[in-house]
Amino acid sequence: MAKVKVRIPAPLQKLTQNQNEVIAEAANIKELIADLEKRFPGIKERIVDETGKIRRFINFYVNDEDIRFLKHDETPLADGNEVSIIPAIAGGGR
Amino acid sequence: MNLRDDQIDRYSRQIILPNVGGSGQGKILKAKVLIIGTGGLGAPCSFYLAAAGIGRIGLVDSDKVELNNLQRQIVHITADVGVPKAESGKRRLNALNPDTEVVTYPLRLDSTNILDIIKDYDIVVDGSDNFPTRYLVNDACVIAKKPLVHAGIFRYDGQIMTILPGQGPCYRCLFAEPPPPGAVPSCQEGGILGAVAGILGVLQANEVLKFVLGSGELLSGRLLIFNALDSTFRTVKVPKDKDCLVCSDHPKITKLIDYQEFCSLKKRDCSSK
Is this complex scored with an ipTM above 0.95? Predict the structure, then answer.
């Protein structure tokens, strides 16, 4: 079980009481999502679809690496890793 | 290219830079840049590019200037309210620098017109504000092999990446498909600080100038993420997706797609730009 810092993007911060950074404990990304759901109920369904897969407009990074090019949600975590959740954003400030 | 005396004076602070010089200024004066949207991103981006002496700037925008635009869209002024934004942008850029030819496209981009518009330009800047336009622009630039500077902003966050078709990853390598309706907060929940839009729009201008000058490292294969509250910049790696829907060797998308608007508000409140 690793202790990691998770960066929460603006669209999900309502669910984390406006925190843009939270701590989670998990051995991999899948467990991390479950741990976030325990701490912030409702966040999981925003991140994964009905089949449990991470939505295609949301990416997870461990440090600066995209987990789609590592082991997807099986990507292991180590103490001190920084996980970033980065969604597609469309705004252009119209 | 021979610079006039007034041009040597006007551009002197950048001509003296290493990697620019008279020849670099000549490249800038010959460059053609298409800017999609004259909003929070397109306004500051176009203003800096015109100031730098970009030879031709195309402005695509189907909207008219509204009072609530002026908090961040710095090419428009109070007297422009009600004027088509492409036209208002042209007025301001012409007043700033007569060296820059400004071409206006007061229309909404779709699969039928985009390829014809981008073909006359060296590089495209996406400052649109909705997913249908963003995916359309990405796919069109990949198909037409046009470099593209993408940026998006939401509240205090910004993202920017430069797409070099045939060389680096595209926007679909990063996010394969747009979110379905209802999956992202609607535009009414947004809000934006003008300075945040300005920072990302000026970063887009910086990418364009580096591309035109052929110097420095473009944000290709990297996504730069800005957070205004922490005042932090971070980059994450963006590998080329070998199964990318549009830019891989076996693309599933070979024709442009007109996605439907996702926003549940009435169309004029959240349409393009």
Answer: no
- Please tell me the distance from the alpha carbon of residue B267 to that of residue B245, in angstroms, as a whole number: 28
For B112-175, the three-class secondary structure string (H helix, E strand, C coil) is: CCHHHHHCCCCEEEECCCCHHHHHHHHHHHHHHCCCEEEEEEEECEEEEEEECCCCCCCHHHHC
A84 to B153: CB separation less than 8 angstroms, yes or no: no
CA atoms within 13 A on the CB side of B35: 36
Per-position pLDDT tens, chain B of length 273: 799 999 999 999 999 999 999 999 999 999 999 999 999 999 999 999 999 999 999 999 999 999 999 999 999 999 999 999 999 999 999 999 999 999 999 999 999 999 999 999 999 999 999 999 999 999 999 999 999 999 999 999 999 999 999 999 999 999 999 987 666 664 545 789 999 999 999 999 999 999 999 999 999 999 999 999 999 999 999 999 999 999 999 999 999 999 986 544 444 444 333
Report CA-CA distances (Å) from B262 to B165, B189, B249, B265. Answer: 27, 14, 30, 9
Contact A56 B175 (CB under 8 A): yes
Contact call for A93 and B41, based on CB within 8 A: yes
> Which residue in B has a C-alpha nearest to residue A65's C-alpha?
B237
Q: B68: how many CB neighbours lie within 10 A of its CB?
A: 10
Q: What is the pTM of this model?
A: 0.94
Q: Do B69 and A94 touch (CB under 8 A)?
A: yes
Contacts of A81 in chain B (CB under 8 A): none
